[in-house]
Amino acid sequence: MGIVSRERGDEPVAAGTDSVFDRSLVTIAVYVRGTVAGEVDVRTVSTSYGESDLAEVPVRLATDDEPAGDATPTRSDGGTAAVADGRETTVTLWNKWTESAELLEPGMELVVTNAKEEEYQGETQYKTTGESYVVVEPSFLVSVTSIRNWVECPRLYYLNKLSGVPLNYPVVKGTLVHEVFGDLLRGRDLEESIDARVEERGLQLGLLGETPDAVKEEIRENAKAIEGWLEQGRLTEEDSWRSEQLLISETFGIRGRADAVRRGAPVELKTGKNLKKEPRFKDKVQAACYALLLEEHGGDVDIGTLLYTKNSALDRNEETGDLTPAKEFTMGDGLLKYVVRLRNEIAAKETSGEIPTGYEADAKCEYCFEQDTCMVVSGRLDQESKAGQIGQALPAEEREYFDRFYRAIEEERREVHREYAKLWEQTAEERADDDRALIDLEFVAKRPLEGGRWELRARRTGGANSKLREGDLVLASDGDPVRGDSELARIERLDDEVVITADEPVAVTRLDVYPSELTTDRLLVAMHDALLKGDERRKDVLFGRAEPEFEEIDEAFIDNNERQNEAVRKAVGAEDCALIHGPPGTGKTYTIARAIRAMVERGERVLLSAFTNRAVDNALEALLEQLEDVIDEDSVASETQRSGDGEAVDVVRVGSESGVSDEMEPYRLERAGEPADRVAELEDAQVVAATTATCGSRIMKEQAFDAALVDEAAQLTEPGTCAAINLAERFVLVGDHEQLPPVVRAENDLTESLFERLVERYPDAGVMLDRQYRMNQRIQVFASTEFYDGQLRPATPEVAGRTLDDLEGVSRDALPETLSDPVSFVDVEGDRSQYTDSEEAERIADLIERYEAAGLERSDIGVIAPFRAQVSEISSTVPDDVTVDTVDRFQGSSQEVIIVSFTATGSLEGPIFEDYRRINVALTRPKRALVLVGDSSALASDPVYERMLEWARQ
DNA sequence: GTTTAAGACTAAAAC
Questions:
Q1: Strand B proximal to A444 Cβ, under 7 A
Q2: Nearest residue to nucleotide B11 when comparing alpha carbons to its C1'?
Q3: GO terms for biological process (predicted)?
Q4: Nearest nt (C1') from A309 Cα
Q5: Residues of chain A with pLDDT > 70: what percent?
Q6: I need a surface site. Which of A134, A546, A754, A843 has the fewest CB within 10 A?
Q7: In Å, what is the CA distance from A258 to each residue of A282, A400, A477, A721?
């Protein structure tokens, strides 16, 4: 049996209940899950055991059809049954669980395991027993690291989140020693492992100024301790090992990765020294977390091992004869419950949004390495802190901004946690329908790789889509990612056959998206840096206290497009910032490239960034073309642009191998290698291109630039934009706020981009590109008048007059008269279903046939619909080589012919139609022909759509 | 009543 049967609890049993040893209690122990329904009453009562604390919590029980109620406990405690009937009842938490009760607020979720059911005044109520655990907000999956930080000091946990962990040698070395430890457990040769692991971290070590030999020597020292200990184990018994196992507990709401699991018990490796007899308390807490996690995975352990690898044989404890460096200790019930209470504190704080002060726990500021940081943050943001405050508080508007965005980012974080919870709340089929899992794979083969890892192959049995892509980290499982056999794995190949690599040879039949807090972490750090480390002048501009200034530039950069030329002048001459507004097809990317070239020619170091890898690569490609021009014009310049082997050396693309396109791969900065070389490559680069997420990485945070150019800035949140512009003296944002805004999970302040805010605040700092190179004149009219004040116009007569006739083998005369105009409307009454319309779908299939008959290639036709359901409906009725997608996914691309399915009959209600930016995107994708398909009476019910109708019917 | 991307050094590393 599991934890529930662990000897006796450390707490007195609730007064008036049967003894925990009474078998009858075990048989009626229940698993209670529900939502706090009112104020919690905490008080002290006299019992036969003396004074006891209790908390009465009004709880609305979960129901079977709620996801939460569905979570039948999986722990091996036979007598437990879940109660899930939606009743409102009282749950009494006794003794130390009252500490968790004090954290509860109405609306929070609560789980009590091994509760006792009892009748009170005709009502069935529940209370904790000596074997209960109480879990607050169980779907908030707290990481073991968070709990470890929190027990040291809650404020340390907060500061780590806020300002990130800086690049420092002890941390990097610690990571290396752990990697080598894992390798040893998997049977890899020590020297080979050390060489490989140090090589992999070349760039980081280089930034720290370390040499490979010195690092290797240090790792060898730690490895000696590990090897010695492993030898001891091998002499005495057959060990069963598992290294670096990722564990998730749905009952306790904890996740973590154990360094190693030996005969079912957690082993934690520490790089430091500890000559005391006992392990450090925070290390014990960490091991106890893994014990809880292992418990849920069928283990039953109460022993933890801590391996202090800096301890050597010389440090052998004379007094105790302790075998160093390993320290074994026993985990009692009390420690495990304490850990769950710690975890509850984190979950509750995160839910309520409160900022930790340090008083929550017994923090000792005088020994803390983060004391100064803590005091500065407290002082600048005027936060209460046990360490005290230093310095002047930021102006009120900046603190208000901080609070607003902190809340918004944390809200996003909670959404990420909700994604974790779906791993067990949703069925495999639901996950697959959400595109978040590939299920029903057929396991094919496993193959051991060099270094002890495994290559696993599985065959796809269906053609289902998923968000998973090559290079992604995923949860690979035997069908159940939480309770079953699962490992964190990397997707190497993804076609009919799936190839992944993992530490253990799981018989994989399912892959799940593994949610990550990385993006939210980086947003928080970017906002922190912008406010607390940001230059005053920069903040004056961001907060509307000073107008951006410009140096007058007379130079002509682009001679056939006045606005583009002006945009480059503004970008080059900006003292603070410049804003380039580029409607569809207006040559934003070219303009950026030209501006960067001009900056580079002035000897400046430039950062090129955007939200997506694709956008970064596009802009970089345009820049490389520009630089080619330089070489063509001036052979002397070419010497400096090119290295001996003909490759540009002053341009570097920072990003992962899977993120960067094959075309840009030659410019990608490799992380592995000789430290000094890698650092030189990065630091000598005059142009560095990276996504905004990468700009927030520890590596990029060390870099400084004269200017940052951010493309597609209207799709970035403010903190996302800050990640890039924090690194530069001046910045240029390029985008179009009349197209779709940033994608965020929760409705909050993140939905407006910094680009949009600044364009509105400082119209004079912006330039709107007004000539488009994409659409026939008739097509662009509506978007131009509706979204761009009529300023958008064709760049050339050729663009204005382009029609299908220009395409080889296509004749407009072969089209029915209704389609002869570049813009046409097809009135379809449609069916009444909400997210699909089969009549529109049929009509569209028919239209495609007619275009084909007129000589058009299917691949030149795109179909856009608002709903995914309609997209699949249309996909099933039209040929495969016609692109069919939602508006949102069509943004950024264009087609010769676009057909739009409005999928609305009778009325236009629904949030999807309310954002007019969506129609702007849909209507500006075609070059030569646009066909709108919909119900005219529904469209006429909204003034904007009505004007669209008039325009299409002209 | 909807739609939506992509990022990536996973979590843990330690003075």
A1: no
A2: A257
A3: DNA repair; DNA replication
A4: B14
A5: 89
A6: A546
A7: 15, 40, 17, 35
pLDDT at residue number A229: 76
- Contact A313/A264 with Cβ under 8 angstroms? no
Give the pTM: 0.89
CB crowding A171-193: b at 16 or more within 10 Å, else e: ebbbebbbbbbbbbbbebebeeb
- Contact A927/A894 with Cβ under 8 angstroms? yes
Residue A543 CA distance to nucleotide B11 C1' (Å): 37
The half-sphere exposure of A809 on its side-chain side, counting CA atoms within 13 A, is: 8
pLDDT of residue A224: 82
Higher pLDDT, A340 or A239: A340
Q: What is the per-residue DSSP string for A883-942?
A: EEEEHHHHTT--EEEEEEE----S---SHHHH-THHHHHHHTSEEEEEEEEE-HHHHTTS
For the segment A679-725, what is each residue's pLDDT rounded down to a tens digit? 999 999 999 999 999 999 988 988 999 999 999 999 999 999 999 99
Give residue numbers, 877 to 906 of A, with CB < 7 Å from strand B: 885-886, 888-889
- Average pLDDT value over all residues in chain A: 85
**Buried b or exposed e, range A662-687, using 16+ CB within 10 angstroms:** eebeebbbebebebeebbebbeebbb
Residue among A949, A586, A934 nearest A775 (CA): A586
Q: Write out pLDDT tens, residues A233-258.
A: 655 555 677 777 788 888 899 998 88
Q: How far apart are CA A356 and CA A386, in angstroms?
A: 10
Say how far apart CA A922 and CA A513 lie, in whole Å: 29
- E strand spans, A154-240: none
Q: Which of A535, A698, A524, A704 is nearest to A163 (CA)?
A: A524
A835 CB less than 7 Å from any atom of strand B: yes
Q: Bigger pLDDT: A329 or A756?
A: A756
Q: Of A293-297, A664-668, A887-891, give the range with the top mean pLDDT.
A: A664-668
Q: What is the mean pLDDT of residues A78-97?
A: 77
Residue A476's H or E segment, with its range, is: strand A473-477
Contacts of A796 (CB under 8 A, 6+ apart): A773
pLDDT mean over A879-888: 88
CB atoms within 10 A of CB A599: 23
**Whether residue A325 has a cis bond before it, omega within 30° of 0:** yes
Q: Is the pLDDT of residue A71 over 80?
A: no
Could you give the CA distance from residue A918 to residue A942 in angstroms, rounded to a whole number? 14
The Å distance, CA of A28 to C1' of B15, is 50
Distance CA A755, CA A651 (A): 26
Residue A781: C-alpha distances to residues A139, A803, A946 (Å)? 50, 15, 15
Interatomic CA distance for residues A516 and A889, integer angstroms: 22
pLDDT tens digits for A587-646? 999 999 999 999 999 999 999 999 989 899 989 999 998 888 665 444 433 334 443 344
**Which domains occur in chain A, in start order?**
32-136 (2.40.50.140), 162-342 (3.90.320), 418-518 (2.40.30.270), 534-632+639-769 (3.40.50.300), 795-953 (3.40.50.300)
